Amino acid sequence: MKWMAAAALMLAPVLAWAQTGTCPGLKNPELKWNQRQGDNYTLCYIELPGSVSTGFGVYVGHRTFKPDKKAKAEKGTVGTQQVQWYTKATPGNARPYSREAMIVIPGDKPKSKLKVYAWIDAASAEQLNQAYAIAKQVALN
Asked: pTM for this one?
């Protein structure tokens, strides 16, 4: 029971940003989210330096995600959460280094986990590495 109370306290900030429709915190104060608010979702994204079409983002809301059967998978992290990144199809394969993942954050009850969709739009290996570095700066807990 004590571990459940401790888990609830640690997840309180995560659930707060998810329920209020705000973007998660960032460990690096120099990074700033761009935010778009919808009726029942929030898009939070950070553009890579010198670009307006590449970057890292999260979708806070109800969104399903099922990777393409041919999508290559690789392990990674968003904040301290372990994720499985999958190759993301882009129109005309314009950004071949793009990735997507579902972040699953355990809740205080067995079926109260939070799912957050994350994506990376990158046209080069260098941009992909920049986006991975940004993803590690997200404060999910």
From this structure: 0.79
CA dihedral (86, 91, 93, 94) in degrees, to 10, reads -110
Buried b (16+ CB within 10 A) or exposed e, 108-124: beeeeebbbbbbbbbbe
Contact indicator for 106, 11 with CB cutoff of 8 Å = yes
Q: Are 98 and 86 in contact (CB under 8 A)?
A: no
Would you give the end-to-end CA distance of the chain in angstroms?
20
Q: Which structure tokens are listed for 49?
A: 């330096």
For residues 34, 36, 41, 43, the Cα torsion angle rounded to the nearest 10 degrees is -30
Mean pLDDT (the chain) is: 81
pLDDT digits (tens, 9 = 90+) for 79-110: 988 999 999 887 777 788 999 999 887 777 76
Checking phi first, is residue 81 left (phi over 0); if not, alpha (psi -120 to 50) or beta? beta
